[in-house]
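[step 3/7] fold_predict: job queued, chain A
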Amino acid sequence: MQLLISRIPRLITSGSNATSAIRAGSNRVFRHPLVARVAYPLFLVCFAGIVFWKIILTREYTILSYPDSSGQSYPWFQYIAETLHRGNFPLWDPFTFGGRSFIGEVQTGAFYPLNILMGLLPLNARGLLPMTIIEGFVVLHCFLASLFTYLLARYLGLPRFSSLVSGVAFAYSGSIGVRAFGQINILYAATWLPVVFLCYFKSLDAITWKRRLFFANLSGLTLALCLLGGHHQPFIYCSIAIACTALLMVVSSQSRGSFPPPSIRRSVLVVTPLLFLFALSYSSIQLLPSVEYASHAYRWIGGQAPVLANQRIPYSIGGTLDKLPPEGVLDLVFPFIVSVDNTPYFGVLPALFVLFSVSEIRKSKVVRICWCLALLFLTLALADITPLHGIFYFMVPGFGRTRSADRSLMVFHLAVSLLAGVGCTLFLRSTSKKERNLRLRSIQIFGAFSLISTFLVVIAYFYRSQVLYLATNSNYNSLFFACILLLLAAALARARFFGVLRIRFVKVFLIILCLLDYHYFLSVHIRTKEAFDRKTNYEPAQYFREDGVLKFLRSQPGTFRVDFRGEYYPKNIGEVYRLETMEGHGATAPKEFFDLAVAGHFGVGRLSDLYNVKYIVSNEDLSLPRVFGEDRTKVYENPTCLARAWLVGTVIPKKNSEELLPALLDPLFDPRNAALVYGRPGSSLPSANPEGGPGSTGPSSGDVHFEAHGPNRFTVIAETPEAAFLVVSGNWDPSWKATTNGVPSSIQLTDGALMGVNVGPGRSTIDFRYRPKGMYWSLALAGVAGIALLYTGLRKGRAPEPASSLLVDRGLSD
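[step 4/7] structure written:
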């Protein structure tokens, strides 16, 4: 390290003129250091406020109109908030699919600290989390993404203004800004990508091992937040990016006289595994329940037949679904010209600045790393078009469980946003004679591209409208707007090159162009609440509006489930209004429940009876007693539904679902008198001959009382004169634990998807608790990692941070 510090002054004054030149291009706007330090983050706040002004200043618009944000994220946030306010934690969700693991599905984001913070905020008069709070947290994450990237760029040596450009380019790109509307959980998870790299680089630069452990721990924590935020793909892609960065630094340090020196290389080999170790420790609280749940859950992959959540997605789907087509590269400059799930667009001016950064590839290690990451993840976004994606798919752990390959562009956008900051610095600085011709040539090429693109768009527009007499579609609006930005950017570049404008005015115009660019790019996703139609606009306040039917159902006493037929009511409406339903909307569903539903088609009959479905809501006429109606919607009562728990005197063991499901649906089988279980039922109960048919059953007498104590616990009190078998109408899960009169009892998979427990004669109190396997171990691991973070973070005094050893051209800052 001493060798490194001693060589930095010589490197700064040596042949690499990037340091002095870029520093010269800084030309501070704010003279006072403290004012400058605070002013730029405040400007990022203002930038977010202007981009989302329709949400902040009016009540006419919403950013939650897309199916995933309205139909999934909104009810999940409501369920988290309502459960926390009742003094519980949402481990289990009793309101969808007849009950399922809430924390088993990663996308719910139950352990994400900011979701918990949001859930603890005051509820409105209806007991719901206000829409303004939910949308406010979405805007907050866009600001945090820009701030974190700004801090990363500052640490890597960029001036404050260039770091500002990097921040807005990342936060409002296609991978981040657009996710504020479609998949909020991906936005939350991807927000932390810059912090992972910032802390990782700090851990490599730290002088003492205590500080290295602190920043490695902090980097692992933020990497875990990429998973806890609600999606596994940012976690996987960021892990790959960190591993590739470490590999690049180790390989490049093998050559003589290059950086980082051997001491830093040893730090990379030690710090990188520590980072992943801490990340796994923090994320184990989500990983362990998800791994356990994945073996008993189906996952949907692009409309195909579901697969087990713990299985690798077939490459015929994972390598082709939602990939970036070759023509999608046009979206780098022209947004919306190609329909893709995750657009690569990140702004016109930032794209120009990325071109300027090419001249620094040989001079700056960070520029080389960013270009490598950008090209790598852009190639991965092309999926099966290139063999690289297939190699990663089968060789990298976890990569085979990802779909929508174009979502890997989130790392691409982080890399190019840093490159845009480097290019912006070069754009603002004074050019030397050696670079003047190259810069002029680049500006001329960009100007020619802008003019040719504008000419082609105008010709295509007039040919379509005036020659073919066809109606022009909305894509021409975005094309013309992109052309205007291209022309303005080219004009600004020429004005800066020939010194027509002072640098302060150049910065002002640059920010205005970026603001216009990102405002237009994202404003098309901000929709009016009046456009709500349940088909293209699912604004939650109206989609989840409480009507007479919901009020009637909520007023009914007792414990029961509701079967909502059709598409009128949201699938996850039970999570908002505390109604236990048979429907649900998410990435996964319990396997046994889904198999049973497919086999029985969930009509009015045995399956509805087994699941305690007392009311059926439908727009169709059913041969059941009608108990309520409003407009075209009718509520029917199912008089034959079973209670939430009952006793049977006979069990019929079955080896597998191929034997169980036909027997369960047999008209001669009566679930009130017998139960079908997997394996041996136990010696304390009479067992019917499995070959004897469904009719060989016997009844059981006794009383059963069911009492719920929250989403994660319920109690059944059973009184029976003889040994019996208790059947609970709730989905079986391996994490459910039972005790009978304080003694642990085995819960058996019963009647295809339900829970069953042996009960002895007399009065028995059976207590059921949902406790995921390894939950206490994961809490202990996270706690130990947290204690280590606090311990290593405490230090006497504040020693100055060393210069970053990652840059040959450190000193890029103001």
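[step 5/7] annotate
The chain has 28 helices and 22 strands.
Confidence is low (pLDDT under 50) at residues 1-29, 256-260, 689-697, 807-814.
exit 0
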